[in-house]
Amino acid sequence: MSKIQFHPPPPIPMKPDPREATPQTVGRYRILNEVGRGATAFVYKAYDPQLDRFLAIKVLRQELALDDDYRQAFVKEARLAAQLTHPGIVTIYDVGIADDKPYIGMELLEGATLEQILKTQGKLNLRTVLAMSIQLSRALEYAHRQGVVHRDIKPGNIVVLKDKKTVKLTDFGIAQLDDNLSKVGKRSDKVVGTPEYMAPEQVLGHPIDSRSDLYSLGVLIYRILMGLPPFVSDDLGQLFKQIIKNKPPRIYIAEEKVQDDLQDLIRKILQKQPNKRFQSAAEVTAEMRMIQNKLGQKKKADNQEYLSLRFRWTATMAGVVFVAMCIGLATVYFMQYKALSGITFDYGRSVARMIAYISSEPVLLEDQIGLSALIKETSSNEQLKSVAIMNNENIILSSTSSELVGTSFVSPENRDLKHTLDNISIFQRELENEEVLFDIEMPILYGEKTLGHLYLSFSADSMYGASKTTLVTMLIVMMITLFVVFVITLVLARRTSKDYQRVTQALNKVAVGRVDARLISDRNDEAAQLFAAFNRLASFLESRLQTRDKVKTHTIKHATVKKGQSQPESQVAETVELDIVSHSENK
Asked: N or C: which end of the chain has fewer CB within 10 A?
């Protein structure tokens, strides 16, 4: 049903009814706005503060609510419909009376009625019609088992949800309400049901049962396939005459493969006499599923919704392994990064402490030569990018950049504080060439006296290089693992898929009378049990057919002897054999 397009017609402006203004509340429900009105009731969008949800409230019209019989029957039938719980039937949450007006609180459906869709699209394609009709027939099957007959199946009482796949029946019990009241002299002027969708027994005023709903469903199927109901007339009397006497016009569809099957379906479901129609909605569902399956056989391989078992299992297993390995890879990478960061920070602090300790005496003695020698020696460390020694006035006493000596020290910009411990601060910054550096700043102490402070910058390339190597290695391992899992799962899934195909082919043979089909297997697993179960079924069917053939042969021989025919025994045997072959072919 994916091809349904929602283009609802613009809402028809409704003149406000001064006698029935939109209420602020109905019972405990807060009314938000009016969403529709009909001959018997108004429908509002409402909010339930007690359960914190939005819903639809249907309130009986004022002139009907004043009728005690109608009001009581409305509540009774609504409560009967509220007992229906099915995915294809609108859910009724509450039934009650507020301000002397009966109301029904029901599920708020987001979508468009089938009537609105048909007004814009005219008719729908066969696949959509079958999918929709199967849902409706299953909903009717459930309702009929509960003893509830809808009595007013029509496009206006069917809502297609926004997912464009789900349809729901609404207004259960309302038509029954009008019918019950007409029997006691109430509402006798109202036609029970929608004329074009009424069954012949409805038109004639005869008793109505579940088969009347099936007739209306047949009219609905015809309508959404052909664009018009089978019987149409502006004159109500002429319309009823057609419904009672005329045969429905032939349907025309592009799918020739199922045209005869669909025609047979419409012919049977629209029979004038209820006992000649399908006797239950389950039969209708089965017939439509058969047509749906037959329609899908031609393009089964090209059907995008059809996925091979091998693909499903392989994709699922590969996906699970991929997700698990990604989680593992992220965890390992994070833990390794954390560990390497700690090692790097410890290394930087150790080097900084050593330089600060060695430089403390030259700073105290203002030994510029000693400081220069220290800086020169530390410059041999390839990881150290820059070192600067400052006094308490923040004047650089010695640095790997000689032009900075004698100037005030200025800390680099755009850096983040990563760690602080024992007056040692570690910062991280990134250069324009994407090189990452760690900056360390700490005081230079001589005993407990602060003589100045030290700035040291070193590269983090080794740490990030180790992390990247680990990441690449794990990615390679993950890809190898995924490939192995993919291949193994594909092999196992292909074997299972072949088992299903064998059973399917064997069942198809039985379906055309080949009850001698067997599945041979030396395996000892669930597939072997399935094969054995099929073999037992085929053996049983074969024995039953053989018994029928023996009885038939005995009957023919007995009839031949009784009539005194002198047909040779060989000729009798040949006749029986030909008859059995004919029987098998018919089967």
From this structure: C
Instruction: Look at 391 and 546; give whichever has higher pLDDT.
Output: 391
In a shared domain, residues 332 and 409: yes
Please give the Cα distance from 408 to 181 (Å, whole number): 101
Torsion angle, alpha carbons of 234, 240, 246, 249, to 10: 50
136: confidence class by pLDDT, cuts 50, 70, 90: very high
* pLDDT for residue 574: 35
Q: Which residues pair with 158 in a beta bridge?
A: 169
427 pLDDT higher than 70: yes
* Same-domain status, 148 and 224: yes
| Burial label, 333 (beta-carbon count in 10 A; 0-12, 13-18, 19+) | middle
Q: Verify that 289 and 352 share a domain, yes or no.
A: no
| Domains: count for the chain | 3
* Same domain membership, residue 115 and residue 71: yes
Q: Which domain holds residue 578?
A: 526-586
Query: pLDDT tier at 576 (50, 70, 90 boundaries)?
Result: very low
Place of tokens 């410059």: 379
**Is 150 in contact with 169 (CB distance < 8 Å)?**
yes
Q: How many CA atoms lie within 13 A of 21 on its CB side?
A: 4
Strand partners, 419: 426
511 lies in some domain:
no
Residue 512 lies in a domain: no
Assigned domain for 256 exists: yes
Q: What pTM, to 2 d.p., does this model score?
A: 0.49
Last residue of a domain, one of 467, 483, 506: 467
345: which 2 tokens? Answer: 């920070």
DSSP state at residue 490:
H
- Note the pLDDT tens digit of each residue in 275-302: 888 889 998 998 889 888 878 764 444 4
- Tell me, what amino acid is at 7? H
Write out the DSSP string of 541-578.
HHHHHHHHHHHHHHHHHHHHHHHT----HHHHHHHHHH
Strands 384-391 and 449-459 turn out to be: antiparallel
CB 9 within 8 A of CB 118: no
Same domain, 388 and 256: no
Q: What is the pLDDT of residue 216?
A: 92
Identify whether residues 191 and 90 lie together within a single domain.
Answer: yes
Side-chain-facing half-sphere of 461: CA atoms under 13 Å: 11
Last residue of a domain, one of 297, 317, 335: 297
- Indicate whether 474 belongs to any domain: no
- In sequence order, the β-bridge partners of residue 388 are 399, 455
Tokens of 98: 């507020």
The CATH number assigned to the domain holding 45 equals: 1.10.510.10
Q: Would you say 277 and 215 are in contact if contact means Cβ atoms under 8 Å apart?
A: yes
CA–CA dist 414, 382 (Å, integer): 24
Largest CA distance in the chain: 146
* Cβ-count burial 372-407 (b if 16+ within 10 Å, e if not): bebbeebeeeeebbbbbbbbeeeebbbbbeeeebee
What's residue 97's pLDDT? 85
User: Are residues 102 and 217 located together in one domain of the fold?
Assistant: yes
